Amino acid sequence: MTASPAAPHVRTTPEGIRWEPSERWVRGRTGDTTVVDSRHPVLVWEPGTPVPLYAFPREEVRADLLRPAKNPPRGTHSGSRVFYDLEAEGRLLENAAWTFPSEDLAGHIAFEWFARVGRGLDHWYEEEEEIFVHPRDPHKRVDALPSSRHVQVSIDGTVVADTRRPVMLFETGLPTRYYIPREDVRLDLFEHTDHSTGCPYKGTAAYWSWRGEGDVPPNVVWSYRRPLPAVGAVRDLLAFYNEAVDITVDGERLERPVTPFTRRSPGADS
Questions:
Q1: Which SS3 state, helix, strand or coil, does residue 163 take?
Q2: In angstroms, what CA-CA distances link 260 with 72, 165, 263?
Q3: Residue 116 has pLDDT above 90, yes or no
Q4: Gap between the Cα atoms of 115 and 92, Å rounded
Q5: Considering only CA atoms, which of 261, 260, 269 is closest in space to residue 244?
Q6: Is the confidence at residue 164, as pLDDT, over 90?
Q7: SS3 call for 229
Q8: What's the pTM?
């Protein structure tokens, strides 16, 4: 049997930028114009940033649509000094792209991911699947497993959920999330909000806030109506922020975890 080639290792530049080649076919569009069509993308982790972004060989980018930036930002993207405005379909996206100040990444161009901030492209695809929020980290796992554990959720002593058929979602770097069938949740104690978030691993979440009194942050409950295929088991189930409610599993009260969500209002991501 022929041994498979070793996976590419993450490399680090003298500037502290971590990067590794990817074998995924990545495309980025603004409107109907394909700006990036790359079979040789590079995943890049900037210092202090937990999620990656992509950089692409210049020859796999519509460089003819790029113009030297009129108002380049300072002190962003690891000290990058070369920024580009993107002009396509009558739109001008300022500082939509840049190059990194590293010889390791010479000849590569990176792009803002978020169209909503007014700089990024509208749509990104890995192979034929559209990707949202940021590129998925190949070193991170997200597993949604049906379970028969007994899970109870309480807020200020009131039991708001009680189930023996949860789906447990295990995500690298985050506490286990317990997704509960709606029939097992006192949803009448919560109010649907217009808040939503996107996750590149799970999809777009809708939120509910606690109607009662007490020090409960808004958007403490969420659900994915149309989750991505990899976590289809959580469809229409409801999850609570462990950081803000009391969860008991098989009779054992869990400690509230300390995460980035503890320090800001839940609803920033899920």
A1: strand
A2: 30, 28, 6
A3: no
A4: 12
A5: 261
A6: yes
A7: helix
A8: 0.81
